[in-house]
Each structure stands twice: as C-alpha cells, then as structure tokens.
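[09:14] KT: can someone run the structure on this one? pasting the chain below
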Amino acid sequence: MFYKAIIQGRLEFGSERSYDKVLKMYEYRTDNYYKNTLIFKAEEIFIPEEKALVIPRYVAQVTEKSFRNTASLLDYCSQFAVAGSIRAWQIDEGKIMHYAIVEPDSDKAAVQSFIKGRKLVRQHGKEDEAIQALTKAIEKYDRHAQAYERRAKVNFILKKYHDAKRDYGKCIKLDPTIPTAYYGRAKVLMLEKNWEDALKDLEHATKNAIALQAVYWKAKRLKAQCHIYLKQWDKAAFDLKFFCKRKFTEDDPNYVWKRWGYHHYGIVLLNMEEYTDALEAFDKAAAIQSDFGKIEDSEILRYRGVAKQKAGKSGYIKDIKEAAKMGDKQAKNLLKEFA
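[09:31] RB: done, structure tokens below
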C-alpha cells in the first residue's frame, strides 16, 4: 500500500568531521541495512558546502515501510547534528497515520542550551532565563536558526519588538524555510502598521508550512486581517473562507479564533455586498461561545442586524435594539437613523 508522505527540514552538523561521519554512516546503513527501502539516497539530501542534510519539501506516495525506515534513519542522523529540525507526515485520505519530528538530542553544548531555552520559552516568568539559554546556544553555534527564532519569540513576549524583528530576520537569513519566523516577524510589522511587508512575510509563512500545521492557519488569519486593513475585500474573503471551513480540534490554537473568523468574514462579505452570505457568517459567529478575538456579542448583533436589513430580511430592528441595550453606541446611532 502506498500513502502520501510529506517531509521537510534540515539538519546542520557544524563541522567537516561530523558531516563526513554521518554521511558515511548513512551510506553504510543504506547499503547494508535498508537496501531499497529508503525514500532518499545520500546524494539527494546531503549538501557538502553547507555541511547539512537538507530536504526542502518532499511530497510523494510511499510505502509505510519506507516511510518508517527513512524517519528512523533521519532520527539517527540527528544525533550527530548541532542544530535543525525535520518534520515528516504520512497521510491516508487526509488523516495522519504517522508523524515524526526529528531533532538533535545529544549532549553537545549548543543542543542542550537550545533544548533548555525552548522549554523555558513555554514557562511564564522564565523569559530572562530563556534568553540566556538561547543566547548560549547561539554563542556555541552561531548558525543556530531555531535558537534565533525562539529568542525572537521571547523578545516579542517582552515587547522588545526591535530585538524580536532582528532575531527573526537572522533566523530567516540562516534558514529561509522556517514558517514561524515569517509569522513572528509579520506580527511585528503589523504592530508597525506595515501591512504590505507583513503580507509578504505571511505569504512566505504559508508557503513554507503545510495545512497540517497550526502556523499555516494562524498565518492565513493574519493575512486576512492585513487585507481588511488595506480594504482588499476579495483577498480577505478568500483567506477567511478557508479558515472558517477548516475543522480545528479543541487543542489547536486556531480553534478559539473561529468566532473571530466568521465575524470578520461577515464584515468582508458586507463590504462586497454579498448580504445573504454575510448574514450566514454572522449567524455562525453568534453561535460560537469560545472567543480569543474579543468580539462582543453586541457587535455581532449590530452587524447581523445590518446584514438582515441589507438582505431584505425581517428582524433587523430586534438585533440592533438588543445591541443597543448592551451598550453598543453605534447600534444606538443606527436606531436613530432608522427612526
């Protein structure tokens, strides 16, 4: 049986000695252990001038055995690496059969400092310690793209936006395939109201991610937000349509943004004069309780009332009155206009 495989990423070995050692090991195991049951030949993925193993993006139908063998051998190779990450998915009809993340986990100083820093990034109040650990990883290996990306995230959390933007830029320069770096820099650019450059970064984020990753949909949502600020309604509608249709599990960070997505999709459709579809979007937004976009019930009711009125539907006064009772000033003004 053949199944769809997606594999992408890179491992950096840092020195000629480590690179030559892992290359010989890969070739030996290919010939003696795995024979014809691997996806990649050594010459296809080993880049001598970079002293790295690089898989930009591989998508093909492969057997389950070849996928597992390849993931296992890549994982073995990662123990010789000083930095990097490879992600591999095997998919059957849209469902993930196997997922593997391959990263260095050796006792090398750069590796251990990065692992420590990455764990601290997730702990509130440990930001300074995280920066210290990640900086140490960079000092040990100055091409550590992932360490720059994680340090940038901490700087963003600390509202050190200039430092965050600098570190995201360094990460991208070292490894232009890391989607979270583009996503993070885009957030800084949006704070600067630089919507055009933010859109460029978000486009790179989606191109370097796949739809199975949360960052892909996070970037889609921010793309839509930029298009809205630029009044590019058709482009915003395109991104929001797919974001709203996507079924996120409750542990996906995009799950709590569904209400925001439907609400803004409705606003975009109103501006495109597609009033019936806008009304449907506002109905769906109103039905969702979980929200991370801080959309007030009164705002949804006000917009839904406008959509009903524009679509020639009854009940629009009731929605706007309810919004006004909740304290929505714009709804109160609308009632005066209707009166």
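[09:33] KT: thanks! The longest helix spans residues 16-34.
[09:34] RB: yep, looked fine to me
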